[in-house]
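ok new one. same drill as before - structure tokens go in, u give me an amino acid for every spot. 349 of them this time. try not to just spam alanines like last time pls lmao
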């Protein structure tokens, strides 16, 4: 398949002009996956703040403190890599997404400012910064969902497609809330864990609706994608992916129904199944789009820069990626497991 694709472009598989864009696309997908999972639980917890009693909100934000700086890193790095590796594509792609991207940018800025100001604010002012963090999380989730909705429909501008992007934005809120709630189920116990279970069970239904809507719309909006998944060579793969995703949904629902309780020893499993679910969805979208950046219009080779420029960016990535991996292994090594709460101080003798 690779040799055939290279020949169709008039290249050979070992030509840097052929394989470098694919390497950058793979790196970009890894960054998107990291952003969905690692920044995703952060966004999800932020979305749940207004559902929690006021006395629990400070604790929920405090749980995020060890990873806040690292979480903001992923979307910025992904955007920078996309602009550097695909200079002939970013103007066309981002120009069609300025509304959702502006929503995301405002949300991310509001989240960062509100989180830092809450730490330093007086007690009576903390609730307004908690509300700001919630509002920023909402804007970020809606913006990311709207981006997905626009990309799925091939950037079509008819009114119905615009409303579809809004609907996917709402479902993205549910998906992030599910991820954040499952992370809380894994991290905490007591009343907050019971509330997180309830939030997750409500969010999982709209997450499923959103995923089905994206898959159906992507197939109906583009005949090539529909054929790719429905022909005899790929139908088995499509059925297998949807079956695994269905098992993930059922497994999450069954585990949540038994939490808190006997299933506490596997309280990490709903979060792990959420991660698997979202990674499968991302892999399915990547397979549907390959080799296009814009369906039926621009391939990754059309959008990529000169070989010399890509070599320079790749050299930087080879140096930076190991450093980033080490930093994040150290930063995220405690993201799993129960919260370690400080022991009360002993009275003075």
């Amino acid at each position: 398949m690779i040799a055939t694709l290279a020949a169709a472009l008039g290249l050979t598989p070992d030509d840097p002009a052929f394989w470098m864009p694919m390497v950058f696309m793979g790196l970009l997908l890894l960054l998107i996956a990291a952003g969905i999972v690692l920044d995703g639980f952060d966004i999800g917890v932020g979305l749940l703040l207004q559902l929690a009693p006021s006395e629990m909100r400070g604790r929920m934000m405090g749980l995020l403190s060890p990873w806040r700086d690292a979480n903001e890193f992923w979307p910025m790095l992904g955007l920078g890599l996309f602009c550097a590796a695909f200079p002939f594509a970013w103007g066309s792609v981002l120009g069609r997404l300025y509304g959702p991207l502006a929503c995301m940018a405002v949300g991310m800025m509001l989240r960062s400012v509100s989180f830092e100001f809450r730490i330093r604010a007086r007690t009576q002012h903390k609730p307004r910064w908690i509300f700001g963090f919630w509002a920023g999380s909402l804007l970020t989730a809606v913006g990311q969902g709207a981006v997905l909705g626009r990309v799925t429909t091939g950037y079509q501008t008819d009114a119905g497609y615009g409303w579809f992007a809004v609907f996917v934005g709402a479902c993205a809120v549910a998906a992030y809330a599910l991820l954040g709630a499952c992370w809380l189920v894994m991290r905490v116990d007591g009343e907050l864990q019971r509330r997180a279970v309830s939030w997750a069970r409500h969010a999982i239904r709209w997450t499923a609706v959103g995923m089905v809507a994206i898959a159906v719309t992507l197939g109906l909006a583009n005949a090539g994608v529909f054929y790719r998944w429905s022909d005899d060579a790929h139908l088995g793969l499509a059925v297998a992916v949807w079956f695994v995703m269905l098992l993930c949904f059922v497994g999450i629902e069954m585990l949540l129904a038994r939490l808190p309780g006997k299933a506490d020893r596997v309280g990490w499993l709903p979060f792990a199944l959420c991660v698997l679910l979202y990674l499968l969805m991302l892999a399915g979208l990547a397979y549907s789009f390959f080799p296009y950046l814009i369906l039926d219009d621009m391939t990754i080779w059309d959008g990529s820069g000169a070989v010399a420029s890509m070599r320079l960016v790749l050299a930087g990535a080879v140096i930076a990626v190991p450093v980033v991996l080490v930093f994040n292994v150290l930063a995220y090594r405690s993201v799993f497991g129960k919260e370690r709460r400080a022991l009360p101080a002993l009275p003075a003798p």
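The beta strands are 292-294, 298-299. and btw The two ends are 76 Å apart (CA to CA).
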